[in-house]
Specification:
This protein is mostly beta strands and 84 residues long. It contains 1 helix and 7 strands; from the N terminus they run βββαββββ. Strands 1-3-5-6-7 form a 5-stranded mixed beta sheet, with no helix packed on it. It has a two-stranded parallel ribbon with strand order 2-4.
């Protein structure tokens, strides 16, 4: 829960399908290298916090389709938000 940063390519696996990220995370910089099966990202903060999180331009380039599950709603690959 206290992770503030994760190194580049930290999750280098074709097998990861689900991951949990702390709301303390400050940035996403290409950490999902070759995670083409990752579908569900659980983020401990709100949709608003997720949207203001610093992200590299290619942070999700290995993720063909995913959902960010936040404490107050979900964010789809195309940016569509569904609030709880």
């Amino acid at each position: 829960n206290n992770v503030h940063s994760i190194g580049k390519s930290a999750f280098n696996s074709h097998k990861i399908q689900t991951i949990y990220l702390s709301d303390k995370l400050e940035s996403l910089n290409d950490i999902f290298y070759q995670c083409s099966k990752l579908k569900d990202i659980y983020y401990g903060g709100t949709v608003e916090q997720w949207n203001t999180l610093s992200k590299s331009a290619s942070w999700d380039s290995w993720l063909p389709e995913y959902t960010i599950h936040c404490i107050n709603g979900d964010v789809a690959t195309d940016g569509t938000i569904t609030y709880n």
